Amino acid sequence: MDIEEIKKMLTLMAVKPSTIVAGIDLAASPQRPSGVCLLSEKKVLDSRELYSDEEVIQYATAPGVNLAAIDAPLTLPPGRDSIDQRGEEHLRPCDRMLSQRGIRFFPITIGPMRELTRRGMSLKTLLEEQGVRTVEMYPGASQDVWGIPRKKEGLEKLRQGLAGLGIEGLKEEMGDHELDAITGAYTGYLFLFGQAEILGDFESGAIIIPKL
């Protein structure tokens, strides 16, 4: 099923479509695959890997999409106007809150995270220009809160963990990028219905994670 077929399917779903969240496990470079999915309630409508910004934007602006939950930094640390600007601060308040909870992550201004941050901020701007709200999520954090394995512990364990949350439509052939995108989409769905916690704030930087 291509992207145009997905759009037609979603348009025909209902006069007033159910809430649909796009999950995006973004790669730092368009040369590497990004996992994407569309989720309604606990049902995975579609998942796949995409590459270019244009493909990701077209996918995440399908009819009925209310929110895009992106696994990428969408804001900069305090005192920085660009990712290339030098500064002493490498962490945002939301990053420090993750660290205080013992959740492991990579600082956003170091190594390949710089390019991921640049791409994430660009996609956020482009998606919101088309009327799709964006939030930052971190699949590893959500998986830790739920007490399910991260992908490095085995894809089958992660898949079983997501199934144990009641998520439907999971398939054995789904790769790590798709499973992380599904994790993010479900986190975004919980956020829309007040069942997620916001670390930080949406001005200085916020990461959404599930409530315990």
Describe the fold and architecture.
This protein is of the alpha/beta class and 212 residues long. The chain has a single domain (3-210), classed as Nucleotidyltransferase, domain 5 (2-Layer Sandwich), CATH 3.30.420.10. It is built from 7 helices and 7 strands, in the order αβββαβααβαααββ. The chain has a 7-stranded mixed β-sheet, sandwiched between helices. α5 (139-146) packs across α7.
TL;DR of this structure?
This protein is 37% helix and 21% strand. The protein is of the alpha/beta class and 212 residues long.
What structural keywords apply?
212 residues; alpha/beta; Nucleotidyltransferase, domain 5; 7-stranded mixed beta sheet; 7 strands; globular
List the helices and strands and how they pair.
Elements: H1 3-13, E1 20-25, E2 34-40, E3 43-50, H2 53-60, E4 65-70, H3 93-100, H4 113-129, E5 133-137, H5 139-146, H6 155-164, H7 176-192, E6 196-201, E7 205-210
Parallel strand pairs: 1-4, 4-5, 5-7
Antiparallel strand pairs: 1-2, 2-3, 6-7
